[in-house]
Amino acid sequence: MRLEYPTSIKIIRVPCTGKVDLLHLMRAFEMGADGVYVVGCLEGDCHYNSGNFRARKRVEQASRILDTVGIGGDRVQMVNLSSSDGPLFARKAAEMVNRILEAGPNPLKSAKSEEAA
Amino acid sequence: MIVAEKKPIQEIIEEIKTHDSVLILGCNECVTVCEAGGKKEVGVLASALRMYFLNKGRDMRIDEHTLERQCDHEYLDEIREMIDQYDGVVSLACGVGVQFTAEKYTQKPIYPGVNTFFMGVTESRGVWTERCQGCGQCILASTGGICPVSRCAKRILNGPCGGSTTGNCEINKDVACGWQLIIDRLKALGRLDEYEELAPIKDWSTDRAGGPRKVVREDVQS
Hints:
The complex is a heterodimer. Chain A contains four helices and two strands; from the N terminus they run H-E-H-E-H-H. By secondary structure, chain A is mainly α. Chain A has a two-stranded parallel ribbon with strand order 1-2. In chain A, helix 2 links the parallel strand 1 and strand 2. The N and C termini of chain A lie far apart (47 Å). Chain B is of the alpha/beta class. In chain B, a hairpin with a 2-residue loop joins strand 8 and strand 9.
């Protein structure tokens, strides 16, 4: 298909989105990620039955915490798609990048550079 | 186990905002099982607090440590060498652990990071319910293994009361009537005749009514 998606996205592979922990999401933002989205199988299609549902709950938890600490809960998102749906993967990637471009960079990055200066 | 719930992050921020360095101290026992104050919760809270204060332009040191237990001297001794590095400690242990840490390190402010609720069980993941109120005089032998002190809203010993309807308590239709559970259990055990026996007046002096309690076992004392 030779589809393109934004180069600013770094993919971290996990065996199932159920492996993604709240702590992984938190650490990513603490280390300066501008946004994180978790791409899981379609709901009802999880090979392990509930992995993607668990991931969604953790994403929602992370979103609430990020709102509380002033980073912005919109920076984390859950996406469900079929592993064979390449065009949708590319579209969601572009959507996520646009959403983050609107939100701007992770505010911790400027806070860290001010602290260093 | 002792069941607790995480406090809102905002409440913890208000407690510690005047400090420059804080230790988030978890506990590996009950609060780990009820997912309120174990190593993972320590990591999440510490991460959230670091992000909050950094975003506010504060250079605040927030470190993490989790003890095997906070209700025993031997484990609390582990932090003796490190605790002086911090202005304060947020303990994610139950109220017992918070108090024992505060008793041991009297020069350090210790803040609770969880709200402690009761002694209970994990019914399913994310659902915990009360089973024991520590009355100090266990009567489970005569009630089919179901406790009227913790399962009955009125703690009555010869129930049910008139508020029991279709097996549920009048305080909330989602709360099972403890005495209905007891009767059903005794029936299933073929011991319903025991239900006919009136329970004598309970000695509540072993409960909280007698003030703070103490257990002394000379046979195991060192």
